[in-house]
Amino acid sequence: MEIMKSARKTESGDIGSDLSEQVKAATKDIHVRAENTQLMLSYQKGHITLPQYKVLLCSLHEIYKALEDELDRNASHPAVAPIYFPQELARLETLEKDLEHFLGSGWRKRVVVPAATHRYQQRLRQIGKERPELLVAHAYTRYLGDLSGGQVLGKITQKSLGLSSQEGLSFFSFPGVTSPNRFKQLYRSRMNGIELTEEQRAAVLEEAVAAFELNIQVFDDLQKMLSVTTEAVDQSAGNVVRTATFPSLPIVGLCVALTTIGLGIYSL
Questions:
Q1: DSSP character for 176?
Q2: Lowest CB count within 10 Å: 59, 76, 80, 254, which one?
């Protein structure tokens, strides 16, 4: 229950029983760690490269595929139903559109990704089957972060990559959300209304911290992978990304996951 206790207070005092505020308080310190990974600092400074962005997109695809598969499967679960907004928030189709733009129709077969991303995907599948209420922690940290930082990160990405249009940036757009701020208020209200036992609430807070830890591991693994890349070539015909292979970073036909991109995505 240590996380529960620490989540109840901020520097200004008692934060009450709202689950969204407790998650924010519980993840405050690890949030800062995630923001200060080497990869994220580079992204915030506008130093993202096209090969990096392609790997990020492919990795995000598998994280969101796992998350959204499990949210869909558990849509009627009492803890999931209140925060289930597939039309407004789903990212899978936008990521597939962006990947096809940059990598072509065969993008699923052309990526090398860190092992940590696979662990994150496995965790999402596991809790979806065993403890669906824990999906609340992952959905909150990812979707509300995406809404918070989407526009800013989209502009950073477009400028960094020298893109002349919005093609390849669909991930950052939420056409089903007319007002991100109002929608986030609605989402928090729905989340705060979820009925959980004390044990379940503590587990959700622990899972939120674990989600950030998984993110950090992926950031670190991805940075290591990119640092030993021997070749990353964007070919006009086929858009193939070639990277070095090494034992700890298995090649998979279907891309596996990374975390949300950048500081703004953590602005919950």
A1: T
A2: 76
